[in-house]
Amino acid sequence: MDDYTRTIEQIDNLIAEEEYDKAVPLLNGILIDTPDYLEALWRLGLCWVELEKPDKAIKALTYYCSFVKDNPRALEAFGCACFKTGELKEAQNYLERAKLLNPGSSSVERNLGVVYNQLGAFEKSYKAMKRSFKLNPLDYRTMYALASAHFYFGNYQKAVELVETMLSMEIPDDFKNMALVIKQFLETKKNIEE
């Protein structure tokens, strides 16, 4: 057990609770003392991705990956950072590497599905979303992505079911609002078709 084990445990709890802004100062504190502390470095990259600072994430993760090439969580974070900067092929490469290392990750599948969608590979995207949902049917992000895919492919009833499930859950307001938009659009479409 090293000097930072307890702090890393605290950081992991903050990340699990999506309290990324509280994890960053703790990670920076470790890295000020020990700049090459790899366990802090990839977590900092992950936090920057979630805090919508993909350029900072890429900087941290590039440095981390110069030492470690096979951490699926770091590769997933790197893929998401590339996606957020519009580097879709790079995002696909990192996420596919993460999937090879961690084939049971619903978040990797979901993120791959989003990237495939943006690359125009809609069928591949849909399959990835379905795999993600099968791996974790309670993840509201996956529900939203799959509902959108169902909608795209004309499976409106399945889309409605997922959206209604999402709306019955405690989820962040931005996802609740996006789910409401899909639901309202589907209701409008249903009324037009009747």
| Spatial separation of the terminal alpha carbons | 65 Å
Q: Sum up the overall morphology in one term.
A: globular
Give the number of helices.
Answer: 11
Taken in chain order, the helices and strands follow as HHHHHHHHHHH
Work out the strand percent: under 5%
Structural class: mainly alpha
Q: What is the strand tally?
A: 0
The proportion of residues forming helix, as a percent range, comes to: over 70%
CA radius of gyration is 18 Å
Mean pLDDT: 93
Largest sheet: none
Low-pLDDT regions? none
Give the SSE layout.
Blueprint: H1 5-16, H2 20-33, H3 38-50, H4 54-65, H5 72-84, H6 88-101, H7 106-118, H8 122-135, H9 140-152, H10 156-167, H11 173-193
Report on the structure:
- This protein has 194 residues and is an all-alpha fold.
- Helices cover 78% and strands 0% of the residues.
- It is built from 11 helices and no strands.
- It has helices at residues 5-16, 20-33, 38-50, 54-65, 72-84, 88-101, 106-118, 122-135, 140-152, 156-167, 173-193.
- Helix 6 (88-101) runs antiparallel to helix 7 (106-118).
- The model has no long low-confidence stretch (mean pLDDT 93).
